[in-house]
C-alpha cells in the first residue's frame, strides 16, 4: 500500500483551515492523508523538501514535487525557475487575488472534483478571509472580536507548538468552529492571549513620539513592550497612517501602515517608499530592516515625514 499523502501547511489560521479542508476533501476521494505544519526555515533547502515522500503544500511556497498545491501569496515562487514550472492544473492552483487560501481550494474542488462544500467549510473560508486580509469591520472587532474563529486565531498567538496546531487541524477537518472554540485548550490559550492583548494596549501610549498631520510615529523598540498589531488605530482612530520601530529576533524593523478603518483619501505607496530603505510591501502596508536601532529610528522618522508632507499637500 502507498504511504499516506502528507499535507504541509502554513502555521496560521488560514493555513490550518486550508490543510483541514484539503484533508477532508482528499479523504472523501479515498486518499489516505496526514498533515504537518511547515516553517520558514525549511525554504533554505527547498529543492530537497520532503524528498522521497508523497506530499501536498497549502498556503505556502510552490513546490514542483507537490501532488497538490494551493496558494494565494504573491511571493509564492522562490525563483524564476520555479515560476516557470507552474501551470494551473487539476491539482495545482495559485490565485493571488484571493484574500486567503481556503476559498480557492473549495472553488477548485467544486469545479474540478465535483465537491459539494458543507456549510461549516464556507464559514471557515469566510473567517479565513477576514483574518488573513484583516477585513475586520472595525478596530474593536480586530482586537476584541469573540466570534469562534477570532478566538481560535488569537489563541494561536500564545502557542507555536506544532503538535497542537496539528490537533486543531484534525478538529477543523471534522467539526465546526463553535465546537473547536469551546475546547478547554483553546479557551485557556485564548484567555492568555486576551490578557497579552490588554497589556499591549496599555503599553502602547507611552511609545508614541508624535501625532501630526494624521500620521502617528512610535518607538516600541524595547523588548519589554508587548506588541498588538492595531494598537495605534485603537488609541488614535483619527489617524491615517502609523509608523513605528519594533524589535525583531535579529535587530529592528520599521513598520508602516494605513489605517484600514480610516484610509487616506490620497496617499503614497508605502511599499515603494520602503524600497528606498531596502524594504518593500504593498500600497497600504510595508516595512524595512535597517542595520541598527539608530538607523531604524531615522528611517521611521523619515517615512513619517514623507507621509505627513503628502497629507498636507493632498
Ligand atoms: Mn497563511
Architecture overview:
With 314 residues, the protein is of the alpha/beta class. The protein has two domains: 5-136 and 161-182, inorganic pyrophosphatase (n-terminal core) (Alpha-Beta Complex), CATH 3.90.1640; 206-313, Diaminopimelate Epimerase, Chain A, domain 1 (Roll), CATH 3.10.310.30. It has helices spanning 13-28, 80-85, 102-113, 119-132, 139-144, 148-155, 162-174, 177-181, 184-203, 231-235, 270-275, 293-313, and strands at residues 5-10, 33-38, 55-58, 68-71, 92-94, 208-212, 215-219, 241-247, 252-258, 280-281, 285-288. The strands form two sheets. The chain has a six-stranded mixed sheet. Strands 2-1-3-4-5 form a five-stranded parallel sheet, with helices on one face. Helix 6 crosses helix 9. 39% of the residues are buried. The mean pLDDT is 95. Manganese (II) ion (MN) is lined by residues 10, 12, 14-15, 59, 132.
Terminus-to-terminus distance: 66 Å
Using the coordinates shown, work out and report the CATH topology of the largest domain.
inorganic pyrophosphatase (n-terminal core)
Bound molecules: manganese (II) ion
Q: What is the helix/strand order?
A: EHEEEHEHHHHHHHEEHEEHEEH
Please give the number of β-strands.
Answer: 11
Broad structural category: alpha/beta
CATH architecture identity of the largest domain: Alpha-Beta Complex
Shape: globular
Let me know the average pLDDT: 95
- The total tally of domains equals 2
Strand content: 15-25%
Low-confidence stretches: none
**Count the helices. How many?**
12
What is the class of the largest domain in the CATH system? Answer: Alpha Beta
Tell me about the largest β-sheet.
6 strands, mixed
Which bin fits the share of residues in helices? 40-55%
Radius of gyration: 21 Å
Strand order of the largest sheet: 6-7-8-9-11-10
